[in-house]
Amino acid sequence: MNIHEYQAKQLLKQHGVAVPAGDPCKTIGEASAAAAKIFGSGHKLAVVKSQIHAGGRGKGTFKSGFQGGVKLAKSADEAVAHARAMLGQVLVTKQTGPEGRQVNTVLIASAETIKKELYLAVLLDRANSRPLIMASTEGGVDIEEVAEKTPEKIVKEHIDPAVGIQPYNARKVATALGFKGELFGQACKLIIAVYKTWWECDAAMVEINPLCIVEGPDGKESIVAVDAKIGLDDNALYRHPDILAMRDLGEESPLEIEASKHSLNYIKLDGSIACLVNGAGLAMSTMDIIQHFGGNPANFLDVGGGASKEQVTEAFKIILSDPNVKAIFVNIFGGIMDCNVIATGIVAAVKETGLKLPLVVRLEGNNVAAGKKTLAESGLTIISADTMSDAAQKVVKSVA
Fold this sequence. Notes:
Blueprint: H1 5-14, E1 22-25, H2 28-40, E2 46-50, E3 61-62, E4 70-73, H3 76-86, E5 90-92, E6 101-102, E7 106-110, E8 113-125, E9 130-136, H4 143-149, E10 154-158, H5 167-176, H6 181-200, E11 203-215, E12 221-225, E13 229-232, H7 241-244, H8 254-261, E14 265-268, E15 273-277, H9 280-292, E16 299-302, H10 309-320, E17 327-334, H11 339-353, E18 359-365, H12 368-376, E19 383-385, H13 388-399
Parallel strand pairs: 15-17, 17-18, 18-19
Antiparallel strand pairs: 1-7, 2-4, 2-7, 3-5, 5-6, 8-9, 8-11, 9-10, 11-12, 11-13, 14-16
């Protein structure tokens, strides 16, 4: 689950990370109050930031013609004017696609003078099965670009999950980032606090880009998380009802929301061949083999290892809600899953939805003979396949 920047900063602040003063605003009245508070406390500059689940906001364009989803303001009136131009408008960025996202909230925050931009993130290194702190002196740009062009500028520090982050881990990262003097102590505390945010929130990733050395109204330098992004592990959200309450359904696909109600893992894609698969690994392989034979997957849909007939029926309904779908590829390997349960679900779903699209089914594994018999005796027009390769070629051919 993703959350907005202002929500990420709230979690970071709760764990001791310094963030700019600011408030989320959903109305012009709230924007006016937030701007007045910032300039009234001595700040000379504020930033107004559109809150959507997409990057590239600063370089984005609103469909109204207003340029930029992140704007600086030298007065409260200017900040309110920017908020008025953003709220309720659709912002298009390189990550939203041409349809864009409607901005329902803006963050109005203080904007101190930035002296230096850095990068800091905590994530799970799956290759080493350990938490990883990743940092760089190159902040404010895509970390992928840094990794490709100047990998030596990326600092990596693995943490032993049995003991957690230790002061020496933080000192190593702070030293590598070039912090000295009073800022060195601040950096160590902040690094530890960011790690604790990641650990205690069961986050998939905490990213601060940029992490900045700023000069405050009093001329004193400090380290502040100017921007923040947190992705949460969905499987752990039951432990965090307060974080779950941050979920913004308006930022999610309606089909993905409907799928989650039935414990289905669904992600909409841009292709025309729908996939219904059990297991994330098999789903990825299915999408790959569709593309290998010249097709384009319309979705990622994992029904899990123990799907019921009812879940399969709901999965079909969700698939058919996508007008781009021209054919359906069901690819099931029955380990825990009973192939006949899936077959029964397929038959029920086809009859209930009145499916007219080509349907290719490949079953293998537990109780596969009974499953194939159920499909064969259903009287429905189903294209059977024995291998993934055979099935993929048949489904791609059906939409050609």
